Amino acid sequence: MDLDPPVFRYHPNPIASGSIVASGAQCVRCEQRRGFIYAGPSYCEVELDVALCPWCIADGSAHEKFDASFVDEALARPRSWAYGVRFLLPPL
Ligand SMILES: [Zn+2]
Questions:
Q1: Distance from the CA of 66 to the center of ligand 1, in angstroms?
Q2: Sign of CA dihedral 74, 52, 92, 7
Q3: What pLDDT does 2 receive?
Q4: Is the dihedral of CA 21, 49, 31, 90 positive or negative?
Q5: How would you write the chain as a 3-class SS string?
Q6: Total Cβ atoms within 10 A of residue 51
Q7: Is 62 exposed, middle or buried (0-12, 13-18, 19+ CB in 10 A)?
Q8: What is the rounded CA–CA span in Å between residue 43 and residue 80?
Q9: pLDDT of residue 79
Q10: What local confidence, expressed as pLDDT, does residue 77 receive?
Q11: Quick one: which of 74, 34, 18 has its CA closest to 86?
Q12: What local confidence, expressed as pLDDT, does residue 56 receive?
């Protein structure tokens, strides 16, 4: 199991903000229980709330599989946390 969730450049402390929560839930993408689950907003055809681990969001595989985005496009603006999530960076 990974020790720490991936780092999002524009959202340096997603655990403190509540976007990533410690959870034993299984990720619907990688089907692993990695100790953390993404609890922020998602915009997608299927229900993904509290269903994806942050690693699958960080590496883009969640977006690829579900065609999901994780920000409200209307609220996204450059240099915001939302922008950072939209253009996800790989874990350090
Ligand atoms: Zn996953």
A1: 12
A2: positive
A3: 53
A4: negative
A5: CCCCCCCECCECCHHHHCCEEECCCCCCCCCCCCCEEECCCCECCCCCCCCECHHHHHCCHHHHHHCCECCCCCCCCCCCHHHHHHCCCCCC
A6: 21
A7: buried
A8: 18
A9: 45
A10: 45
A11: 74
A12: 92
Q: Please name the residue that has the structure tokens 């985005």.
A: 69
Residues facing residue 11 across a β-bridge:
8
Q: Which residues of the chain have pLDDT under 70?
A: 1-3, 10, 71-92
Amino acid identity for residue 15 in this structure: I
Q: Which residues surround ligand 1, an ion (CB under 5 A)?
A: 27, 29-30, 53, 56
Task: Tell me the two tokens of residue 69.
Answer: 């985005």
> Tell me, what's the pLDDT at 78?
44
Is the pTM value of this prediction over 0.70? no
In the block, tokens 């524009």 appear at 10
**The two three-digit tokens of residue 45, written as one number:** 């055809």
Tell how far the Cα of 49 is from the centroid of ligand 1, in angstroms: 13
